[in-house]
Amino acid sequence: MAALEVYLAVSGGATRARRGDDPMKIIVAIKQVPARDSVLRVNGPGTWIEDDDLTFEINEPDAYALEEALQLKEKHGGEVIVVCLGPSGAAQTIREALAKGADRAIHIEEQNVSGLGPLGVAEVLSKAVAAESPDLVLTGLQSDDLGSGQTGVVLAELLGWSSATIIMQVELTGDGIRVKRELEDGWFQYISMPMPAVLTIQSGINKLRYATLMGIKKAKTKEVKQLSVSGLAVSPGTAATVEKIYMPQKTKQTQLLEGPPAEVAAKLVEKLRFEVRVI
Amino acid sequence: MSGVLVIMEQRGGAWNRMSWETLHAGQQAAAAMGVPCSAAVMGSGIGALAAELAAKKLDKVFAVDHAALGEYTADGFTAAAEQLVKAAGPSLVLLPHTYQVRDFAPKLATRFRRALVSDVTKVSVDGGALVAVRLLFQGKLNGDVRLPANEGPQFASLQAGAYRGDAVEAGSAAVENVTVTIDAGQIRQKPEAPFRESARAVDLTAAEIIVSVGRGIKEQDNIPMVEELAKALKAELAASRPICDAGWLPMERQVGSSGQTVAPKMYLAVGISGAIQHLVGMKGAKTIVAINKDPNAPIFEVADIGVVGDLFEVVPALTEELKKG
Ligand SMILES: Cc1cc2nc3c(=O)[nH]c(=O)nc-3n(C[C@H](O)[C@H](O)[C@H](O)COP(=O)(O)OP(=O)(O)OC[C@H]3O[C@@H](n4cnc5c(N)ncnc54)[C@H](O)[C@@H]3O)c2cc1C
Ligand SMILES: Nc1ncnc2c1ncn2[C@@H]1O[C@H](COP(=O)(O)O)[C@@H](O)[C@H]1O
């Protein structure tokens, strides 16, 4: 690290004075979630899903956040670190991120992540992030399982850093960044802000890369730092957690058509012709 | 005051429609809790909006008017809302789950050492506690979050369509101006004017029939199969977001909260799961037909006619049947 860098302590985090052409240090928060087409079953006590027989993958927008970080690094130089708070099995998702090009990883091992609540998760992540004093933190805008849509924003607030959400483009502007934020109904807006900052990345911001064989090989030698929630000195359980989960109640009467495809097609066309009257 | 405070959303003097739904939720929750409901509007030059709120059945209307709130910024709105909540002292703060609220409400809640309970579809009272129902797993499951009702402010954001905006009760309320201090120099986000990407070549809103394709289609090479179905139905082709993100169909064919909002006579969803961000864009269709292999897909919660099956079998069969004429 350059001797010019100045470290300041700000509300628990460290702020680094970055110069325009300094390499970027970027942290990407990645979460492991059940694979998209998983059949979800509620567990016995009704507190979470039965996850023993599920396969897991990286949360979709997190994959885009990682890609964005890798592209920024390729353009400006620097380091990409992934941080994941999750069970031991999340090691797989971490390896894949390393195979795609992340330089190193931090795995905060915790079996019961959903029990921490959104504030608890952000608090744990904030400790790990603060210790690294990055220029930029990228998160996904929302997790597929809990879907709080706020971990990145809370993280920024806990660190005392600026943030912006639902980001579709990131460019460096000397000592700051200019980002394209998605608004509703197809509108967008550019926002500039200083670093360090936390951005929540929207799916579709870039084109995802695949891991190369070389990348997969290299990943095996990359550092994965192991941390624990208790080791980071946060007391979990500060936040409202989900106490019961269940299938949503149907509010609409749906006519279900069943049978072999040709039969179903005939039934459907008849309905469209005589009931819905659109053909 | 202990009560419910609804923070409404406006931009450039126009309400975000979801604010009214949240206001209705606030009125209902307050009645169930036996406490008053108030509403607040933040911005610059918002007198007329506050006056409009004053004609609703509310305890108070809080007007937070400040030059630094003319344009939305996360820092400005968080600072203003923090001071507002401290001045009003509610036990529950409700906000619409909009893109703007996603941007600042988590910061706001954090300042009170709370977690925002986001994506809520129902707020009820159970034995002195608040129970918020929220969406999990992209709407495939619901979860109950229990919050203490009398321990200072709790924060929840309400999902689109959960409550009826047209059911807000009328009445009259006094407007109270809340003076906030915002140091414009402390606002780190510098926003530029919102814009729309190039004009839309396709106007899905005019279509009578829409066939919409989702990730169930698996590969770009399979899109023509759905195109053919659309042709046989004389329908416009639309898509869920991942299809447009992947570039398999142009962005202008995306339906949902960040795409177009459509209300055709018929919307046929093929291999679309029915995430809320998609539903808000097509729920208004007169008839919704869904083809999905997962009987528990949330799309079936809004569908009038459902086919549980493999789209690779059902779609070609349907096209063929239509061609028979
Ligand atoms: C801020 C924000 C804004 C968003 N804006 C939008 C938006 O404007 N529009 C939008 O659509 N989404 C939007 N999204 C994304 C949204 O949350 C969902 O991720 C997305 O709608 C899912 O698309 P999908 O249903 O096509 O894919 P998936 O959720 O992956 O669903 C695919 C479906 O296909 C079914 N399927 C698979 N194979 C078959 C088969 N052989 N036969 C039949 N069925 C099959 C599966 O059962 C599944 O239900 C937004 C998200 C966020 C957070
Ligand atoms: N347990 C976790 N470990 C690492 N990152 C996380 C975790 N939970 C949430 N995140 C990040 O925060 C984003 C938003 O998650 P959420 O607030 O749960 O919707 C995700 O897309 C991740 O980037």
Task: Tell me about this structure.
The complex is a heterodimer of chains A (279) and B (325). Helices cover 25% and strands 30% of the residues of chain A. Chain A has helices at 60-76, 91-100, 117-130, 151-159, 213-219, 261-274; strands spanning 7-10, 13-16, 24-29, 32-34, 56-58, 78-86, 104-109, 136-140, 162-173, 176-182, 187-194, 197-201, 224-228, 242-246, 255-257. The radius of gyration of chain A is 22 Å and the shape is globular. Chain B is of the alpha/beta class and 325 residues long. Chain B is built from eight helices and 18 strands. At the A-B interface, helix 3, helix 4, strand 9, strand 11 and strand 14 of A face helix 3, helix 4, strand 7, strand 8 and strand 9 of B. Strand 11 (187-194) of chain A pairs antiparallel with strand 13 of chain B, so a sheet runs across the interface. Bound molecules: flavin-adenine dinucleotide (FAD) and adenosine monophosphate. Flavin-adenine dinucleotide sits between chains B (138, 214-216, 240-242, 254-259, 271-273, 275, 277-278, 281, 291-294, 297, 310-312) and A (36, 141-142, 166).
Can you count the beta strands of chain B?
A: 18
What value does the Rg of chain A take, in angstroms? 22 Å
pLDDT averaged residue by residue of chain A: 90
Main sheet characteristics of chain B: 9 strands, mixed
* Unreliable residue runs of chain A: 1-14
Largest sheet of chain A: 9 strands, mixed
- Spatial order of strands in the largest sheet of chain B: 9-8-7-10-6-1-4-5-11
Strand content of chain B: 25-35%
Number of helices of chain A: 6
Q: What ligand species are in this complex? A: flavin-adenine dinucleotide, adenosine monophosphate
Rg of chain B, alpha carbons: 22 Å
Proportion of residues in helical segments of chain B: 25-40%
Separation of termini of chain B?
A: 67 Å
Unreliable runs of chain B: none
Order of helices and strands of chain A: EEEEEHEHEHEHEEEEHEEEH
Portion in beta strands of chain A: 25-35%
| H-E order of chain B | EEEHEHEHEHEEEEEEEEHEHEHEEH
